[in-house]
Amino acid sequence: MERFIGLLRDQTDQFEITKVEQRLLPMTFADLTLLEIRAQDVCEYALRVVRDGKLGFVCGTGRDPEKLVADALRAAELGQKITFDFPSAASEPVDVYDPVLDQMEAAELVAEGEAIIEPLRAHADIPVTVTIERAMKHVTVANSTGKIESYDKTLLRYFLESKFKGSKLGITKEINTGKWLPFPREWVADLIREYRHCETKVHVPSGQMPVLFLADCTWELFFRFNSGLNGDAVARGISPLKDRLGERVLGCNVTIIDDPREPYAQGSAPFDDEGVPTGTQIMFEQGVLRGFLYDLESQAKAKASRAGNAWKMGLWGRDLTLYPGPHFTNLVMQPGEADLHEMIASMDRGLVVQDALGFHSGNFLTGEFSMTVGSGFYVENGKIQGRPMDTMIAGNVYDAFTNICALSNRRVGNYLGSSPDILFAQLNVAGKG
Fold first, then answer.
1. How far apart are CA 350 and CA 422, in angstroms?
2. Which residues make beta-bridge pairs with 384?
């Protein structure tokens, strides 16, 4: 880090250096036995430099600092003009590091994997792959204001997948957390029960009907909100929410918070990918729009009061090689009071969605979606009939989230944060029944 600072100090108007060191320990169990375990150490750098008012961005391993700096300066020659300054404010710590998880031996994680697959031995006809990944990250940001900050972060991922026979689809169970947590044994029983339900294939009739999104796949809808709340889209006047601050745009039962301070949540961090201190903010309060997501660039364009939501985030996760942009840090939707099983029992005819294919289709900015039900259940008279085949759902998140029948009383982590299970009163369903 010192070498990069020395090289950049006299050659740039401004600079920012991000260093991410990772220790990864993934392991995979298949066919009821340990298939693979491997350790990996990774160290990456990302540089943003400003010279003559123009921005250059490069990434690399840091093995040749002189070359990486030269590449960044060449990129700045063709870069865009910027109107923001890198931050100097210090951040407050947040609990994202668990020493128990970091110091666990590989053998202890293997033992947890074997405990997960033990109840599956009585169901050998159900193919299950179990992945456990422990990661430790050390993140450092330094810039031309003299700011140098870092934090340690632990991550634990469980991913169970049981593919349907002759299909690439299946039942999945996933946990992402920053703290040591044994995999819930009842989730293994849920996987077995749900797989058995899906052995019966059902053709669903077309029309409008209630659709229940289970909590672990609600992120496929929330991605649309990220586009509408994106500060850059607001600054450019293309967001459908641009003039609606303080208005009710969703249902009264919808409160969504971006909470980067939640201890041990997957996305939590003391500062964002531009070094700006993070802070909890309400996005929707009982359906009323309360705020937008800004990085430094969009904050400057919109003359907004705060940034802190700049993340190097793509459709498939965070990646240091991406340019930072406005994004949820840790989305939290407040739960309701309904029991999940009672929500299913209340459906005369409807769908339960556990996973959808093509979530990236449709118009993100306007909130439109059109997805194929990958795994889920068709319900009649409150009873699960089987797995829906060749079934699509479509709608608009801003319409759907004004018409929610019930929210479950649990909050489950997913790709973007955590949410309850959501029962929409009706969505458009296209099937072959």
1. 13
2. 379
| Residues in a beta bridge with 133 | 26, 157
Asked whether 329 and 256 are in contact (CB, 8 A), the reply is no
Q: How confident is the model at residue 258 (pLDDT cuts 50, 70, 90)?
A: very high
CA distance 374 to 20: 35
In the block, tokens 């077995």 appear at 192
Strand stretches in 52-99, DSSP E: 54-60
pLDDT digits (tens, 9 = 90+) for 333-361: 999 999 999 999 999 999 999 999 987 88
Total Cβ atoms within 10 A of residue 67: 11
Contact 17, 8 (CB under 8 A): yes
Tokens read off for 390? 């060749």
Nearest to 202 by CA among 352, 354, 378: 378
DSSP state of 81: B
Q: How far apart are CA 341 and CA 126, in angstroms?
A: 24
Kindly report the pTM of this predicted structure.
0.93
| 115 vs 298: CA distance, rounded Å | 48
Tell me the CA distances in angstroms from 357 to 161, 381, 428, one per residue in order.
Answer: 15, 26, 16
Which token pair is 425?
């009163």
Tens digit of each residue's pLDDT (9 = 90 or more) over 178-228: 999 999 999 999 999 999 999 999 999 999 999 999 999 999 999 999 999
Burial class (CB in 10 A: 0-12, 13-18, 19+), 162: buried
334, with CB counted inside 10 A (0-12, 13-18, 19+), is: middle
Residue 67 pLDDT exceeds 80: yes
DSSP 354: E
Spatial contact of 254 and 333, defined as CB atoms under 8 Å apart: yes
Q: What separation in angstroms does the CA of 271 have from each of 49, 135, 171? A: 19, 19, 35
Tell me how far apart the alpha carbons of residues 222 and 239 are, in angstroms, rounded to a whole number. Answer: 15
CA–CA distance, 56 with 307 (Å, rounded to integer):
21
**Domains delineated in the chain:** 2-195 (3.30.2290.10), 200-433 (no CATH)
Q: Which of 372, 425, 418 is nearest to 215 (CA)?
A: 418
- The Cα–Cα gap between 227 and 293 comes to 9
Cα–Cα distance measured from residue 149 to residue 269, given in angstroms and rounded to the nearest whole number: 12
d(CA 120, CA 196): 13
